[in-house]
Amino acid sequence: MTLDIQKIREDFPILQQKIYNRPLVYFDNAATTQRPQQVIDALNKTYTEYYGNIHRAAHFLADKATTAYEETREKVRSLINAETREQIIFTKGTTESINLVAFSFGEAFIQAEDEIIVSEMEHHSNIVPWQLMAGRKGAKIVMLPIDDDGRLQIEDLEKLITSRTKLIAVAHVSNVLGTINPIAEITRIAHSKGIRIFVDGAQAAPHLHIDVQKLDVDFYALSAHKMYGPNGVGVLYGKKELLDQLPPYQGGGEMISEVKFSGTTYNDLPYKFEAGTPNISGVIAFGAAIDYIRNIGIENLAAWEHELLNYATEKLLGIPGLRIYGTQPEKSGVISFNVDGVHFFDLGTMLDKFGIAVRTGHHCADPLMDHFGIQGTVRASFAFYNTKEEIDVFIEALKKVIAMF
Ligand code: PMP
To answer: Which helix (H) or strand (E) holds 6?
Structure first.
């Protein structure tokens, strides 16, 4: 199927505007995507038609809001092919999902001297929560290195695993390199040694078809705001037998069964991990975002984004002195680069004056920057609403900026 990109773009009001009198070219999709009108309408509709606090009240509005909220849970379940809706926990984002697992898994399963393997290409949010947990428990973090093409050195994994290894934490897709990691293979190695695997799917879920059963992962996290949905909403998927064994992450309303001063019992899954009033309208509107991407078809959007990636990569490589970080064939639509003699921050700031939004800096991946001996990069990241014409505009602007320096 060929996508009608111009028609798709009409769904995204924010893309219609001009920045410094030039048409906006939005290439910061790995940081956060933009929302189609359908998601904005769903958010608006929640507040104007059926907003009430979920699960607790017996009245019409609360009931409608609860139904819509739970419908999104089913949509997420189906999107990632989880076995049951109990395994879909709403959080405020990937970061909170990771903190939840780091805390609760740590409490249940980690002892002093245990080890957690974390890859070198991780976002800080998939490093620091494990470090905090390791600090509390007296456990150790062991790094799984990458090579200079941005590939995980899977062949080292078996050597890094010891009798103390309890969990491997790894991104499905790197937010800097775009590398798509071989999750099924890593999971197979982990499980053959009785080790659990946590996958950070923040950069994968917007671009790849995810099947948690096929991947056989123990935990999977994603963020709605990177999937054309509202910010402040995320998901944690977990295997049921594991989630059942984990203690709650936060205490409060909703997560309890019965509260007594003599002792409290906890609610069933998924509510055990959803303390307090969640982002009700955001979760409901996330359902509209899932409908939107499924209507286009994940395979279709992935194919178009791949075409954009190849087109942009070829053009960028034609620029003298430009180096791309992350050159794996299995790659999603993220290109990080530097240009000899020009600071990434200056490139980004000048591109902005051409109406082009890119990211500059360390991309919350300091260990990865250290690997390449750099402070940061420019990062252009694509979504299905981007076009080859926008890439042409970007390349021309980049050449002009480089010439100015
Ligand atoms: N992991 C990766 C790979 C990411 O790209 C991001 C967002 N930049 C996160 C985790 C954190 O996601 P959030 O800020 O939505 O919690």
So the answer is: helix 5-10
Say whether both 258 and 163 belong to one domain.
Answer: yes
Q: What is the CATH number of the domain that holds 328?
A: 3.90.1150.10
The band of 2, judged by pLDDT with boundaries at 50, 70 and 90, is confident
Per the prediction, the chain carries an average pLDDT of 97
Q: Are the beta carbons of 372 and 325 closer than 8 angstroms?
A: yes
215 is a domain residue: yes
Q: Could you say which of 232, 266, 294 is where a domain stops? A: 294
Residue with tokens 């879909």: 88
How confident is the model over 127-153, as pLDDT tens digits?
999 999 999 999 999 999 999 999 999
Does some domain include residue 270?
yes
Mean pLDDT of 271-285: 97
Q: Is the CB of 94 under 6 A from ligand 1?
A: yes
What's at 355, amino acid-wise?
Answer: G
Q: Whose CA is nearest to atom 14 of ligand 1?
A: 95
Q: Is residue 95 lining ligand 1, measured as CB closer than 6 Å?
A: yes
Catalytic residue among 76, 146, 364, 369: 364
Find out whether 127 and 152 touch, Cβ atoms under 8 Å: no
Residue 200, classed as helix, strand or coil, is strand
| Beta carbon of 207 within 6 Å of any ligand 1 atom | no
Per the confidence metrics, is the pTM higher than 0.90? yes
Q: How many helices (H) and strands (E) does the chain have?
A: 14, 17
Q: Is the CB of 200 under 6 A from ligand 1?
A: yes
| 82: annotated active-site residue | no
Residues 275, 337 within the same domain:
no
**How many angstroms separate the alpha carbon of residue 403 from the centre of ligand 1?**
34
Per-residue pLDDT reduced to its tens digit, 43-81: 999 999 999 999 977 899 999 999 999 999 999 999 999
DSSP state of 254: S
Helix (H, G, I), strand (E, B) or coil at 259: strand
